[in-house]
Amino acid sequence: MQEDGSGGRGSRRRGRRALASTVLALGALAAVAGVASAHGTTVETPPVPFVALVVGAALAVGGTAVGLAVGPDPPTGRVRIGSLDARVVRAVTVSVRVLATLAVAAAVASGLTSRAAVTFAEILVWPILFKGSLVVAAAVGSPWRLVSPWHVAYDALAALEGRELGVREYPDRLGSWPAVVGLVAVVGVAENLTVIPDDGRLTVVLLAAYAFAMLALGLAFGRAALDRADAFAVLYRLAGRVAPVAYEHDAGSETTGADGSEAHRARVVVFLRPPWVGSARPLADVATAAFVVVAAATVTFDGAVETTAAARALATLGGVVGAYAGLAIYVGFLAAFLAGAVLVRRAVSIAAGAPASTDGGRTTSERVEAGTAEGDRPTAPAARVGSADAERVLRYLAATLLPIAVAYDVAHNYPYVLVNATRLLERAVGAVGVPLALDPGSALAPVAVWTTQVALVVGGHLVAVVAAHLATERTFPDPRRARRGHAPLAALMVAYTVASLYVLAAP
User: Fold this and answer.
1) Does residue 248 lie in a domain region?
2) Integer Cα distance of 278 and 271 in angstroms
3) Which structural domain, as residue segments, surrounds residue 382?
4) How far is CA 383 from CA 10, 280, 331, 355, in A?
5) Mean pLDDT over the full length of the chain
6) Does residue 280 fall inside a structural domain?
7) pLDDT at 129 exceeding the cut of 50
8) Looking at the domain assignment, is residue 500 inside a domain?
9) Within the chain, what is the greatest distance between any pair of CA atoms?
10) Contact call for residues 377 and 265 (beta carbons, < 8 A)
11) pLDDT digits (tens, 9 = 90+) for 269-309
């Protein structure tokens, strides 16, 4: 079940209160340690001068925006590349689920009992289960329902009951606000501001606590709670919007076998699509828009906090707020990004000089958020007047941040994922008595990592500019007003490109 388009002022107030309460409650958790995130690989002397890099990237992003304003629209269609027997797909998904369940069980046991310097829990949970799932989602769509421990537990209980669980419907007023809280708590604070990722026992405790909370929501409100309240389910589903691969279930047709019997063969059809298509569709509601903005702020903070400038800021703030310096900077990032999103939305509306389009779309917001084949064709629910128009513009514009946030997250974390994937493979085959020594170092030379990171970041911004062009066209039906509305977004993305490259290049 997907988010609906409800929300309004009451939803925003609830979201702000929830975020504020969460940040305050997690202050003590942040005090466990200062900043404990080190996923990236840095290069002391970048192969390209920083000024040349920034100027070139800014020209590429800005030039793309200008080209879109005066040239033809980018392609938005998709190309079928093949299909798979649904039975084969089902067998693969079941196998993945079984392996993921066994791996999580082994991680829990390792985290609670192992005395190794690096436990299996540390190798699996943060780099593979959490960060690796985002890399997969960005490439082929979200794998979360297959590997999520709480989804597996819910499905097992539902199978035992012979029906879907839940005693009440999921409250629409909650939307994705619980997921926003979970993202701030687990990724923003626990991962980036504490030593939990480096402690197997603490990792298992956090995983168990989060799983218990999600399963309790599932038992109370059914599967919809797992889809809408789970921060990771929402994160990977949204990341899947930028994936160049899409799927569609085909019921198939009757075929006659050699014995004269008829069979109904369902298939899964695979398509290729431009990566900006999904990000040109509006998000379901204000809560989902806030989730995207918070995700962008969090991943930017994750990278920025590793720079020497951040170290100086932490030292300065440490003299004032002590161990809460990292939390104070993170709250500053959240506030800046959320305020920036509101200001950019206003700037876009003012530049366009007109309210959002009121010509209704062909789908509901639930289908828009679902990411189905129909939802991949950008349409939108009918806009209303007043604050509803503003919300609709925000839902469109926030979606265009997805390519940037996803590209930066992949760029920042893929070395971390790759190194731990090799460790995971070594331990897995070692457990059955087969020695294996892998060295990902040759593929992770600092210059190679830096080059791929720059390519991913700039590529993500280019995709975002294209998505923003399409989004403003569908928000403001008059072409001239749409072009004017696109200008503030393009300027923001040029500035964000410069900031992202600074984070990568900064010592």
Assistant:
1) yes
2) 13
3) 8-254+263-505
4) 19, 16, 33, 10
5) 82
6) yes
7) yes
8) yes
9) 82
10) no
11) 999 999 999 999 999 999 999 999 999 999 999 988 888 88
